[in-house]
Design brief:
heterotetramer; A alpha/beta; B mainly alpha; C alpha/beta; A: alpha/beta; Rossmann fold; six-stranded mixed beta sheet; 32% helix; 25% strand; globular; C: six-stranded parallel beta sheet; four-stranded parallel beta sheet; 12 strands; binds adenosine-5'-triphosphate; binds magnesium ion
Chain lengths: 517, 337, 292, 337
């Protein structure tokens, strides 16, 4: 067992515990979210932290790195008790946390964010040249070809995450904690990240890794700690655990069937038809049909233009050309309001930036998109409360306190609330962009079944996802995009990873032409 | 997490929120105690009526400002707008006396004109800033200069005075009372209630909160951001026009010095009341209390000669800071988080 | 080339200053119509430093030959006016004298202490040296201080008690509110010195509202037509007004113009008194067409 | 995304930024053309020197305001602070004449006092708002009243006037020039350069941006948010004191009406220059141009008597709105996103 845990450590390096949390308890107000949790992080080991949404993972790691103070319990660093008054103290002791929620100043550039608070100086002045060089070096290490001068607000979510990782790497961590770093990353980026994690581990860095993707845990972690409802359930080597075991430990029950049974070919008439839609510089000549009762997947590498296409359909981006038909009739959708009237709803992948009002409580967030349903003149609060009740039930939203700000919710619960918000409009067609980002495995399965139910009731779903199993497990057909073009729509047995990759890279199908020609 | 804990937590946070909401009221009560201590006349019916009547002007305007600020905007033009509307009302009513006589009709036309001008001026502020994509601060700074100039121009640098006969007819709108409550106070109350309902109980109000909180999220929630923002300026304009309608019969005149610095007072009332200057959170009752607080401070200073006149501003400034500090409510609790 | 005369005055931010602007513009029209070779340029400022800017501009871009200036405040404008003088321009100063002697060619002086004194004397006489009064002051500036100091001095030795003095900023809304508060505070007030007609208008409304018109009388100042009319009509509330006419700017412009249109030597001091307007002489001071 | 797209994208955004940065300059050039068209004397050396010298006051203050606003704050007290500091300088220098005589020492002590007061007043604004957790709007509204009262009190309602002998010694600080460039312009230039360096080239400046952009992120990046914010107010205070140092020899006096509404002008200069009122993005050169634009508008209005004085404010308001509209720079491009 212990052998397994330290298999990758340099032989000359002793197994040693770097940072421990002992009997950590944490309450916000009078709500306790952690109960006597203990955890040991060892040099040269990747330790995974598992648990359902709201189990307290993020809270625990924030305590370990000094962002929160424990209500009781203590931290032990290299055998001696230690108190981190703030995150700066934590970082000074080499404890670096990559937050689950992005923590970048949107109006600053990539380079400025990476070195924020630790600017490299020459004399009294910023050494911009060095910082730019360093930033470029860090980014290229992560094979991320973002220009360090780009402002964060102009970056895609996954690029932002890579910047966060670059920022953490630049800090020379002894103990590196990653809170769901891969939720917004693509497969390729995950591989790059894992290479970096292995490299650091081999250098003797202690790593704590949080993810809801159990494959990743299998692939990268040596030991795993499972939390449930704020309590420590177990800590054991990953080698001895199967994915199902982990899921059971987390959820406390078996997950029988991940995906709903979907009988292929039960799809009906065309509900939405898009013809020759283009967006300047982002999408070219996209055409597809969506049938009633089907899930149409959209696959493609990052920046292929999927989001741009969808936002153009629902009127959030300007189209340069193209027609849209609903049930065979042409419709003019020039704003999200028009789309809503046509029964189309859209779930954004950027829950923090465009999804939820973080400084407000759940109720107004839930009903914001479908306000008129709750009264055109006066909002019916009772109906809102009832809807909230129903949504909490249906989407299993676990908030300690209904009145607390959505920004204080755990990431997964925010995502569930966002899904509930979009569903509140009772749409005929749902476009969902990365619906299960940061969602635990139990809830994920619930969401998949929910999508299944939707289509069974004759509604249609467009699914944008970078998770291949999700794409394959849910979609009836899969449209693949590359460089702004739909390069193919895969049906039946063609729906497999290999075909998708071939189309996504432009090897096969309609040529993905550079959209900027 | 078990249900027991859940109840417990929400109970405690309920307390916190209540205390915060009570903050401005407590600060106001503090001021009243101070006032009474300084001069017993403070609590006399006449004085209280004076305070509330005066608070009505700034209060009505501040209710409008609450919408603008909640939705993330700002309006610096309200004072000049009030002066301009007063001026236009007086000019038109004086002209009408010749044809319609000094009757109710004349006053009514003046009132309608006021509303039209207020709504129009608000719409201009809103449309120029949203459609022209210019910071509201600049747009309303510009219109502030424009309206003030226009009234100066109309008055030829002097004062526009309402015809004395019309004044007689119009007078009760300011000096009258219903069951002993002055008309301006009633109007103030009505505007506050309407504002409260609109901001807290209607889809429109909800949208204001959403826009002030995060415009992008609002846009992704199918909200016509520009339209709602423009509407907040229109509401502000309407409130200015209502305030003007009760202002004109008070002294029956308008000049370039009418309404100077009202914008600052209105914004101060809003912020004292707990609305956030950056938008996303607004509180009508807070604003009402804020307006009354500002008026009360002025009144208290007039009731004592203990303080050198020259230091009035200093005392006023201090009281505002202390009152806001007290009303924040969390000074008693330890720094948390 | 035309002879350019620059006129620099405070902007029309309150009644008296409004009258000042009106009279300046009227004078401009009248003089430019009479003398085609004279160009009058009126500029108005919102503060002392803005007025200093205006003076610079009149010299450097308008290239004036003479300046008529009513300083926003005496002291800060002393040096800027001196600059104009040093640039070789003819300078007429109105109302508020400069802090250094010998700069101006002509001084047309209003007389602020005189206004305070005349008002004080009237109140002493009316109250037979005994009673309770309140005072509403202007914006805390030298003008206000001079008036009030002289007023208080005049009351010395009488049994007249000044209950309180508060600033009403030469503004009728403030006048109204301050007076309301005086009325709630003091059960008995025999007279009000409002010092300025704008303030007086606010005071009148407050007294009327409190239904205490028979108890007291009000003394304003400046000569605003509304108040003059009341005096003329024999309103008991406003038995007199003390003149401080904004028309003095027109007088000053006329005198300056004479420098260029006649051969008579133009220099020296022209002091305007603080005339008391009573029902008997009010007609002479009533100009219904003036905006002030 | 292939690398071709990437390069192109960043190139295009580079262009936008350049155009945006040019915006205020273009608007200023437009104003200069307007000025010349109205009166040729506009371009005379004397007039230009006047414009730049005047812009120095408001400009220096606005440089400080750029820091405050970039870091998400606001300071309404600068005008009264300037009045108060002028007053204190005058009182102290006048007193010193008796002992030290009217020499350089007296002036120097006055200057040092000014800096101490400016820094102190700024620190008070900063500490009260950060430590007391009170909105900066309220705190600085309060101190605005306090400083204004203090100067009124010191002057006993009248004017504080600098000893005429001292004026003679002090005079060159305003009226002097170096190689033909007026001293205030040089000081303005130096302050702007220092401000530019501090805001754009030092860690401190970067922290201001970060705090204005997102306080939480700044806090998580080990930035001492309260300390940096307080520092921005201290810088603002220092700038006010520098502006005062060159202001005092100009008019040689201080009273309660000194510096009235300078806060509005300073903030307007900052916003016209392209800094965002909500914080997170500041631009010193924009502020400098903004201040010069405001002064130029005032100057242009003095170039002609075609416009009634009563309408000055309206023309000013219109020009400000139009200038900001033009300088936004994206009016030429289609709505994107
Ligand atoms: N600042 C806070 N104030 C109040 N409650 C909080 C705060 N932070 C977290 N919580 C609550 O603590 C609980 C645990 O949250 P935490 O973010 O640790 O969950 P998590 O395990 O990371 O979940 P996820 O997988 O969804 O990210 C949640 O119920 C959350 O609402
Ligand atoms: N705000 C923006 N400004 C400039 N370019 C943008 C912006 N948003 C997206 N783009 C560019 O538009 C193109 C399409 O982006 P889009 O987000 O639609 O890709 P995607 O395939 O949906 O990516 P993902 O897989 O992350 O969902 C990309 O080149 C992207 O970089
Ligand atoms: Mg989490
Ligand atoms: Mg996308």
């Amino acid at each position: 067992m212990t052998d397994a845990a330290v298999h990758a450590v340099n032989p000359d390096q002793q197994v040693r515990t770097r940072l421990s949390g002992r009997q950590i308890c944490k309450s916000f107000g009078s709500a306790q979210v952690l109960f006597d949790v203990s955890i040991d992080l060892m040099a040269g080991e990747v330790h995974a932290l598992l648990g359902e949404n709201g189990a307290g993972k993020s809270t625990l790691v924030k305590i370990l790195s000094g962002y929160h103070q424990p209500s009781s319990g203590e931290l032990v660093l290299d055998g001696a008790p230690v108190t981190f008054h703030d995150s700066e103290a934590g970082e000074n002791h080499g404890v670096i946390l990559i937050h689950q929620e992005l923590n970048l100043a949107e109006q600053l550039t990539v380079e400025e964010n990476i070195f924020l608070g630790r600017e490299i100086k020459r004399g009294w002045f910023l050494d911009k040249a060095t910082m730019r060089q360093e930033a470029a070096k860090l980014l290229s290490q992560l094979q991320c070809d973002v220009d360090p001068k780009t402002r964060i607000r102009d970056l895609s979510v996954s690029d932002r995450q890579m910047v966060e990782i670059a920022k953490a790497l630049s800090k020379k961590a002894d103990i590196l904690i990653l809170d769901e770093p891969t939720a917004v990353l693509t497969g390729r980026e995950v591989d790059i990240l894992f290479d970096q994690i292995r490299r650091l581990r081999d250098q003797g860095v202690a790593i704590l890794y949080i993810s809801h993707k159990l494959d990743e845990i299998k692939a990268i972690a040596d030991r795993v700690t499972v939390l449930r409802d704020g309590r420590h359930i177990t800590t054991e080597p990953v080698a001895g655990l199967e994915k199902d075991d982990m899921a059971r430990l987390m959820v406390g029950r078996d997950i029988k069937q991940m995906f709903p049974d979907r009988t292929p070919g039960h799809a009906g008439d065309v509900a939405l038809s898009v013809r020759n839609l283009s967006v300047d510089g982002q999408v070219r000549d996209a055409s597809f049909d969506l049938r009633r009762g089907e899930v149409l997947g959209f696959a493609g590498i990052v920046g292929a233009g999927r989001t741009a296409l969808m936002e153009a359909i629902i009127g959030l981006r300007e189209r340069s050309s193209g027609q849209i038909e609903r049930n065979g009739n042409p419709v003019a959708i020039n704003s999200l309001q028009d789309a809503k009237k046509c029964g189309i709803a859209y779930l954004t992948k950027d829950r923090k930036g465009s999804g939820l009002l973080l400084n407000m409580e759940m109720r107004p967030n839930l009903t914001l998109l479908a306000l008129e349903k709750f009264g055109r003149v006066i909002i019916d609060r009772k109906a809102e409360e009832a809807a909230l009740e129903a949504a909490i039930e249906a989407f299993d939203i676990r908030a300690a306190d209904r009145k607390s700000k959505v920004g204080d919710f755990s990431g997964g619960n925010q995502q569930k609330l966002l899904l509930a918000k979009v569903m509140e409009t009772d749409p005929e067609i749902v476009i969902i962009d990365e619906p299960t980002r940061g969602i635990d495995i139990g809830t994920k399965s619930q969401i998949y079944h929910f999508i299944g139910d939707l289509t069974n009731r004759g509604k249609s779903v467009i699914l944008l996802s970078s998770e291949m199993p999700e794409m394959l497990g849910l979609s009836d057909r899969i449209a693949v995009m590359a460089a702004g073009c739909i390069t193919g729509i895969l049906e039946g047995n063609d729906r497999n990873e290999h075909e998708i990759m071939r189309h996504a890279t432009g090897i096969s199908g309609k040529q993905g032409v550079s959209v900027h020609e | 997490m078990n249900s027991l804990e859940r109840t417990e937590r929400s109970a405690s946070s309920g307390f916190t929120i209540d205390f915060k909401a009570l903050g401005p009221f407590l600060a106001l009560v503090g001021l009243f105690i101070l006032g009474t201590a300084i001069n017993e006349a403070f609590l006399s019916g006449g004085n209280l009526a004076n305070i509330f009547t005066r608070a009505a002007f700034i209060g009505i305007i501040a209710v409008g400002a609450t919408f603008v600020i909640t939705a993330g905007g700002i309006d610096l033009s309200v004072g000049s707008m009030a002066a301009f509307i007063s001026g236009a009302m007086i000019v038109v009513m004086n002209t009408l006396v010749a044809t319609l006589g000094a009757g109710i009709e004349t006053v009514l036309i003046g009132v309608v004109l006021s509303i039209v001008l207020g709504v129009g001026a608000g719409a201009i502020n809103g449309l120029v800033s949203t459609k022209g994509k210019i910071e509201a601060f600049i747009v309303t700074l510009g219109t502030m200069g424009i309206y003030r100039s226009l009234v100066t121009y109309m008055a030829d640098g002097g004062t526009l005075s309402l015809d004395f006969e019309v004044r007689g007819v119009y007078r009760p709108v300011y000096y009258g009372d219903v069951l002993g409550i002055p008309v301006p106070v009633l109007v103030f109350f009505a505007v506050a209630v309407a504002g409260y309902v609109l901001l807290n109980m209607t889809p429109f109000g909800r949208k204001c909160f959403a826009i002030g909180s995060n415009e992008q999220v609002a846009r992704y929630s199918a909200i016509h951001v520009d339209r709602v923002k423009t509407m907040t300026y229109v509401i502000q304009g309407l409130c200015v026009s209502l305030a003007t309608i009760i202002y004109v019969p008070r002294l029956g005149s308008a000049s370039s010095s009418t309404g100077v610095l009202w914008e600052l007072e209105a914004i101060a009332a809003v912020i004292i009341g707990g609305t956030m200057l950056k938008g996303g959170y607004g509180r009508i009752w807070g604003t009402v209390v804020g307006a009354i607080m500002l008026t009360t401070i002025g009144n208290i200073l007039n009731l004592t000669d203990a303080i050198s006149n020259y230091l009035n501003g200093a005392v006023q400034g201090l009281i505002i800071i202390v009152a806001v500090f007290l009303q924040r409510g969390d000074w008693r609790r330890k720094k948390s988080k | 080339d035309k002879i350019k005369i620059g006129v620099s005055i405070p902007a029309a931010t309150h009644g008296w200053a409004g009258g000042l602007n009106w009279h300046a513009e009227q004078a401009e029209k009248r003089i430019e119509a009479t003398y085609p070779n004279i160009d009058i340029i009126v500029v108005s400022a919102n503060g002392a430093s803005e007025q200093a800017n205006d003076l610079e501009d009149l010299v450097s871009v308008q290239n004036i030959d003479a300046l008529v200036v009513l300083p926003f405040e005496s002291d800060p404008l002393t040096v800027p006016v001196q600059q104009v003088k040093q640039a070789g321009k003819f300078v007429t100063v109105v109302d508020r004298g400069l802090s250094l002697p010998g700069i101006e060619d002509v001084y047309v002086a209003g007389n602020n202490p005189e206004l305070g004194r005349v008002s004080g004397e009237y109140i002493r006489e009316r109250l037979n040296d005994e009673g309770k009064i309140v005072v509403l002051r202007g914006i805390p500036t030298t003008v206000d201080t001079e008036r009030v100091d002289a007023f208080v001095e005049t009351l010395d030795g009488s049994k007249i008690e000044i209950l309180d003095m508060k600033h009403a900023n030469w503004n009728r809304d403030d006048g109204y509110e301050v007076m309301q508060d005086f009325l709630s505070r003091f059960p008995k007030i025999d007279a009000v010195w409002a010092q300025d007609d704008d303030i007086a208008l606010g005071v009148i409304e407050a007294v009327k509202q409190a239904d205490r018109t028979d108890e007291m009388f009000i003394v304003g100042g400046a000569g605003m037509k509304d108040i003059i009319k009341r005096v003329m009509d024999g309103d008991k509330l406003t038995p007199i007004d003390v003149l401080y006419p904004p028309a003095m700017i027109a007088t000053a412009i006329d005198i300056t113009v004479m420098k260029f249109t006649s051969n008579a030597p133009v220099e020296g001091r022209y002091i305007l008194g603080a005339t008391v307007v009573t029902q008997d002489n009010a007609e002479n001071f009533y100009f219904p067409d003036s905006p002030f």
